[in-house]
Structures are given as structure tokens and as C-alpha cells.
């Protein structure tokens, strides 16, 4: 006999209670529900409308949208072929949202489209703490505005989520990647700067120097980081418009009391960003320190087939990392809710009665439990206790003949006799 089958490493089950391995111990299902509700509440306050796109997308959307030189496209896509179609399990949601925006002509709704989403993403990365193969993101996309306020709004939304989740200390890093006209000049400057040092670079960075030199700025290699100290800065290459935009974003954040640090080496792992780029970090997370990030991506729409650029900015964050940061900050997550009432039945008739009575109480809005096994009163009381229900209704055949039941308050131990037709009213919390 082989052992029972198990989950795929890097994925996890979300269980009723916070217990398990891999990632199941992050948070119980009730905490996920609360977290999703919280995102919806905060998104509502910001005026974001929900969008849900499929988990399956055409591989080409991600290859073109996220960018062929990125790690995501080169190494991390769960992609497969079926018939003559290439599918990918979405590794992120921005390109899918932009696809949906263009496909359904969402600009016709009028005004700026402020959208938020919640859902799973998939990346074939090496699993480790805070890094999964199926993880869950929330995020927002603001489409149709090139105003610096839109950039600041996406950041403000992310920071509001940090407050709502009580994730503790965070650090917001900010940079401007400039416009399409400044980046090629900067890329050349970087190539020229690194040319004498190619022998000192890692194989990956040597490749990046060819394909996407900006990604070298991302390096974690100590030696490369030292080289970077004297490297040309992207911010010195910004055109007037990009510089003014960046300055305005910083002013808006400052006015709103949102603290940030400027990081001229911040680039993001996705190709579609231009102008604003930001990342939110927590020291509590260890190696996978990013809680979320985002930026402006005015070029993405054209990349995936639009005839003209569509100004847009957004952010994405991982629920798992938020939960880890909450744990580190000692924030208590909501647990599984208890029933309002638990029915204990003694005797055959009472057992049948309890079933129909449970349906009546549930119709009256009460969370009602009872033991689905035929057991002794003692065993049922044990179940009632375990359920955490604050009140227990106890009925035997003789009480039912008198159209009555006993209601026990589990914290005081006090017992009251209640007429059956008054039970729902009596039990309402
Ligand atoms: P990215 O699109 O890579 O910037 O990811 C946005 C956010 O999603 C990150 O800041 C993380 O919070 C989360 N995230 C990305 N990849 C993973 C992963 N493999 N496992 C868990 N969370 C992730």
C-alpha cells in the first residue's frame, strides 16, 4: 500500500483551524475570509470596483505583457498546451486586468477605471518561507489617468491595507523608472559603465546586461552591489515630464503623511513599468521581504495589442506575506466562529425533533449545531462544549410532550425552561 497522496510542495490547504504544514499553518479559513472582507471594505472606501478574471490565460498575454526577459516568463510560468492553444496559470493579475479592460472596452463605463481584485496566482519558484507556487494576491489597477494622484492613490490603498491588517513596521521604497525616451539612454549608460567589469559579474547579470540591464540594479550579490554604488542613476536620466511627475508623487505622499524612502536601484521584476515604481517591505519577513509593490505601466496596453497607450498604475500584494507580517507583529487573527446554539437530544423522538428544530433556528438566522452521531447525552454535551456554543438546548421525549426544552447558558451554567414556539426568539443573540 502506498501512503495517502499529499499536496504539491509550494501549495497549501487552507484549513478550518490554523494547523498543518507548509502554509496551512499561516491562517485558518476564517482569517482568510476576514482578510478578503477587509480588502473589499477598504477597496470600497477608495471607490474601487471588483474585477475577477480567469486563472487560465493565453500564454502570449503573459509573455508579451509581463515581458520575455523577466524571470516570470523565462522560468516561472506554469504553462501547457492543449490542442493548439497555449495556456498559462496566471502568475500575476495586471496583464489579465488590462486584457479585460481592452477586450470589454471598460473605458466606456466613463471616467477613470478603479478596479481591485483578489485571487490566486501561480509561479514555479523554489518554495520557501513566504514563497509559494500557488499564492494569493490582492491588488488594484487605476486605468485611464496619467495624473500623479493616481500613482499616490495606488500607494495609499496599499498603505491603508497595512493599517487594516496591522502588519507592523514597513518600509515603502520609491523610484521613478522614467519614460520610454529616457530608459534607452540609461540602458546604454549602464552597459557602458559595466563593460569594464563584465568579468566580475555573475552569469545572470552578464545576460541581463544584454537583455535587460535595468535588472542588474536588482542584484543581491554583494560585489555587484558595491559596483552599483558608482553606477549611473536612473533619476539623473529622467526627462522633464517624468521628473515633474515623480516630484508630484512624492509631494502627494508627503502631504498625506505616507512615509517613503527613495531607492534609485528599485526596479521591479516585470517589464511593463515606467515612471513610478514602488515596493513595500517588512523586516519581519526574512528573505522574502516584499509585502507588495507596483507602479505605473502606461506601455502595457500597447504591448498586448492596444493601438494607443493607456495610462495606468497599480499595486499587488500577497495575502500570505501579510499574514506572516501580522504573526510577527503579534496581531491576532480571527478564528473560526462558534455556533450560536447547540442542540442536545435525548431519545429517538427528540433526536428527530432536533433535526427539524435545527432547520427552524437556522431559518431564524441562528448558527445551529447538533451531533450527527447517535450518542449519549454525555457525549453530546462534550460536543456542545467543544463547539464553543454559548447556549445549549436540551430536550428529551417527555419535555417535548410538554412542548418545552431546557436552555443552558454555558458560561453561567444557568438553566431556563422555554416553550418550543418561543425558542428562536429566546435564543436570538
Ligand atoms: P510581484 O508581482 O512579484 O511584485 O508580486 C507582488 C506581491 O505578490 C509580492 O510583493 C508578494 O507579496 C506576492 N508574491 C509574489 N510572488 C510570490 C510567491 N511566490 N509566494 C508568495 N507571495 C508572492
Plain-language structure description:
The protein has 429 residues and is α+β, with helices and mostly antiparallel strands. The protein has 15 helices and 16 strands. Strand 12, helix 12 and strand 13 (368-370) form a beta-alpha-beta unit. Helix 5 (148-165) packs parallel to helix 9. The protein is elongated, with a radius of gyration of 28 Å. The two termini are 50 Å apart. The mean pLDDT is 92. Residues 92, 123, 125, 130-132, 135, 137, 268-269, 290-293, 316-318, 320-321 line the site of adenosine monophosphate.
What is the helix content? 25-40%
Strand order of the largest sheet: 1-5-6-11-10-9-7-8
Instruction: List cofactors, ions and other ligands.
Output: adenosine monophosphate
Instruction: Note the gap between the termini.
Output: 50 Å
Low-confidence region ranges: none
Outline, from the CA principal axes? Answer: elongated
Which keywords apply here?
429 residues, alpha+beta, eight-stranded mixed β-sheet, 15 helices, 16 strands, 36% helix, binds adenosine monophosphate
Q: What can be said about this structure in brief?
A:
With 429 residues, the protein is an alpha+beta fold.
Fold topology:
Layout: H1 29-46, E1 49-50, E2 56-58, H2 59-66, H3 71-75, E3 78-82, E4 85-89, H4 94-103, E5 113-122, E6 134-143, H5 148-165, E7 171-176, H6 182-194, H7 203-211, H8 222-228, H9 240-255, E8 261-262, E9 274-281, E10 290-296, H10 300-303, E11 312-318, H11 319-328, E12 341-346, H12 348-363, E13 368-370, H13 377-387, E14 391-396, H14 397-401, E15 404-409, E16 415-419, H15 423-427
Parallel strand pairs: 1-5, 7-8, 12-13, 12-14
Antiparallel strand pairs: 2-4, 3-4, 5-6, 6-11, 7-9, 9-10, 10-11, 14-15, 15-16
The chain binds adenosine monophosphate.
The site of adenosine monophosphate (AMP) has 19 residues, from β6, β10, β11 and α11.
Amino acid at each position: 500500500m502506498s501512503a495517502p497522496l499529499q499536496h504539491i510542495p509550494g501549495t497549501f490547504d487552507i484549513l478550518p483551524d490554523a494547523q498543518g504544514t507548509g502554509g496551512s499553518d499561516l491562517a485558518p479559513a476564517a482569517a482568510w475570509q476576514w482578510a478578503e472582507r477587509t480588502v473589499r471594505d477598504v477597496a470600497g472606501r477608495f471607490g474601487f470596483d471588483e474585477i475577477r478574471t480567469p486563472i487560465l490565460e493565453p500564454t502570449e498575454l503573459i509573455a508579451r505583457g509581463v515581458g520575455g526577459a523577466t524571470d516570470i516568463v523565462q522560468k516561472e510560468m506554469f504553462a501547457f498546451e492543449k490542442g493548439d492553444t497555449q495556456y498559462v496559470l496566471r502568475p500575476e493579475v495586471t496583464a489579465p486586468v488590462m486584457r479585460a479592460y481592452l477586450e470589454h472596452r471598460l473605458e466606456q463605463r466613463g471616467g477613470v477605471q478603479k478596479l481591485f481584485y483578489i485571487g490566486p496566482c501561480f509561479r514555479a519558484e523554489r518554495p520557501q518561507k513566504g514563497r509559494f507556487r500557488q499564492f494569493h494576491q490582492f491588488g488594484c489597477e487605476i486605468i485611464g489617468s496619467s495624473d500623479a494622484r493616481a500613482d499616490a492613490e495606488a500607494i495609499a490603498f496599499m498603505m491603508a491595507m497595512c493599517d487594516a491588517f496591522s502588519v507592523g513596521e514597513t518600509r515603502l521604497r520609491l523610484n521613478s523608472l522614467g519614460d520610454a525616451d529616457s530608459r534607452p539612454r540609461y540602458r546604454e549608460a549602464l552597459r557602458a559603465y559595466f563593460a569594464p567589469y563584465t568579468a566580475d559579474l555573475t552569469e545572470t547579470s552578464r545576460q541581463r546586461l544584454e537583455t535587460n540591464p535595468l535588472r542588474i540594479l536588482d542584484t543581491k550579490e554583494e560585489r555587484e552591489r558595491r559596483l552599483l554604488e558608482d553606477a549611473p542613476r536612473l533619476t539623473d536620466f529622467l526627462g522633464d515630464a517624468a521628473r515633474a511627475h515623480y516630484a508630484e508623487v512624492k509631494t502627494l505622499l508627503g502631504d498625506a503623511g505616507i512615509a517613503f524612502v527613495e531607492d534609485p536601484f528599485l526596479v521591479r521584476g516585470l517589464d511593463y513599468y515606467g515612471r513610478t515604481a514602488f515596493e513595500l517591505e517588512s523586516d519581519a519577513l526574512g528573505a522574502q521581504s516584499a509585502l507588495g509593490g507596483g507602479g505605473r505601466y502606461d506601455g502595457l496596453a500597447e504591448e498586448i495589442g492596444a493601438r494607443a497607450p493607456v495610462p495606468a498604475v497599480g499595486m499587488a500584494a500577497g495575502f500570505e506575506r501579510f499574514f506572516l507580517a501580522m504573526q510577527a507583529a503579534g496581531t491576532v487573527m480571527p478564528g473560526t466562529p462558534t455556533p450560536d446554539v447547540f442542540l442536545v437530544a435525548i431519545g429517538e423522538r427528540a433526536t428527530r425533533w432536533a433535526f427539524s428544530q435545527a432547520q427552524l433556528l437556522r431559518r431564524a438566522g441562528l448558527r445551529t449545531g447538533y451531533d450527527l452521531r447517535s450518542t449519549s447525552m454525555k457525549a453530546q454535551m462534550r460536543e456542545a462544549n467543544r463547539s464553543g456554543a454559548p447556549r445549549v438546548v436540551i430536550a428529551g421525549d417527555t419535555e417535548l410532550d410538554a412542548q418545552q426544552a431546557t436552555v443552558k447558558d454555558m458560561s453561567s451554567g444557568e438553566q431556563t425552561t422555554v416553550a418550543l414556539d418561543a425558542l428562536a426568539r429566546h435564543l436570538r443573540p
